[in-house]
Amino acid sequence: MASRKEVLNKVSKIVPPMLEHFHKGMLGRVAVIGGSEDYTGAPYFSAMASARLGADMSHVICEPGAGQVIKTYSPNLMVHPYMRQQKNMGANETIDSVSEEVVAMLSRLHVVVIGPGLGRDPAMQETCARVITEARKKDIPFVLDADGLFLAQTRPELVEGYKQCILTPNVVEFGRLAKSKNIDVNAEDPEQLCSKLSKALGGVTIIQKGSKDYISNGQQTLISDSEGGLKRAGGQGDTLTGSLATLLAYRKAYHDRIWDHDNSLSEDETLTLVAYGGSAITRECSRLAFKEKGRSLQAADLTDHVHQAFLTVLGENTKL
């Protein structure tokens, strides 16, 4: 098995250098879809992690009530109040009309994160299901987390066999996904669980979050076990989803050859590298934030450390 240093050296290959001829949008157009009226922090943390890691354009697509709040958090994010919970549907609005407006955003995006602050509202869930269906048709990568994973659990056909998606379940979410595929987490070898669930879902990439992060596409499994913080504040997983989104955008830039490189990495390999890199950066964010804040650490503290974590884990790509 490759060492951590060897894997991270490969991850760094997909990070574009900063070149004068690049223009706005080339290094990542990312959207986080979620943000119900009760949950405004999660989509913000995800989108800001994406921005801090270097995405050129970071969007949040959310409920109007959430949008008004998120706009006050940062002027750097582009906030689109297109989502609707069932109870907040206007007289002339339907799931069809709402979904069409959200799906129309896809042509402007490289990557989508689905789930932060989404909730279980049927209209919100159905809209995201339609976004996933259209994203697959357009070959757009997406990350599923939180209540976005509820879709993978209840409607697995949405993600099955789609190699351009990453699922990021915590221990409870992983258990629910495994149960939906008749996998007994207590009867299986913990080292093989992530791989088995990935295979059951047709080879999607899964990051099984925990004291160690297991990363598998069913064929290859990596373990990300670098030091993290000891505080388990809610919302730290949103830094992971945002980091993954930007790295997925960088992966597209790598395969589109927007700069000169040796083109030595396959698309399957770079997807696994993105997952490992996102995990490593998030764990380093957690370590740095915990070192500073200790037991008072909150999810927002990780945001300020994203860039330093990137520099520590990957370093800046200065080879031309």
TrEMBL record:
<comment type="similarity">
    <text>Belongs to the NnrD/CARKD family.</text>
</comment>
<feature type="binding site">
    <location>
        <position position="238"/>
    </location>
    <ligand>
        <name>(6S)-NADPHX</name>
    </ligand>
</feature>
<keyword id="KW-0963">Cytoplasm</keyword>
<keyword id="KW-0067">ATP-binding</keyword>
<feature type="binding site">
    <location>
        <begin position="170"/>
        <end position="176"/>
    </location>
    <ligand>
        <name>(6S)-NADPHX</name>
    </ligand>
</feature>
<feature type="binding site">
    <location>
        <position position="117"/>
    </location>
    <ligand>
        <name>(6S)-NADPHX</name>
    </ligand>
</feature>
<dbReference type="Pfam" id="PF01256">
    <property type="entry name" value="Carb_kinase"/>
</dbReference>
<dbReference type="InterPro" id="IPR017953">
    <property type="entry name" value="Carbohydrate_kinase_pred_CS"/>
</dbReference>
<dbReference type="InterPro" id="IPR029056">
    <property type="entry name" value="Ribokinase-like"/>
</dbReference>
<feature type="domain" description="YjeF C-terminal">
    <location>
        <begin position="7"/>
        <end position="313"/>
    </location>
</feature>
<feature type="binding site">
    <location>
        <begin position="209"/>
        <end position="213"/>
    </location>
    <ligand>
        <name>ATP</name>
    </ligand>
</feature>
<keyword id="KW-0597">Phosphoprotein</keyword>
<keyword id="KW-0521">NADP</keyword>
<dbReference type="InterPro" id="IPR000631">
    <property type="entry name" value="CARKD"/>
</dbReference>
<feature type="binding site">
    <location>
        <begin position="228"/>
        <end position="237"/>
    </location>
    <ligand>
        <name>ATP</name>
    </ligand>
</feature>
<keyword id="KW-0456">Lyase</keyword>
<keyword id="KW-0520">NAD</keyword>
<comment type="function">
    <text>Catalyzes the dehydration of the S-form of NAD(P)HX at the expense of ATP, which is converted to ADP. Together with NAD(P)HX epimerase, which catalyzes the epimerization of the S- and R-forms, the enzyme allows the repair of both epimers of NAD(P)HX, a damaged form of NAD(P)H that is a result of enzymatic or heat-dependent hydration.</text>
</comment>
<protein>
    <recommendedName>
        <fullName>ATP-dependent (S)-NAD(P)H-hydrate dehydratase</fullName>
        <ecNumber>4.2.1.93</ecNumber>
    </recommendedName>
</protein>
<keyword id="KW-0547">Nucleotide-binding</keyword>
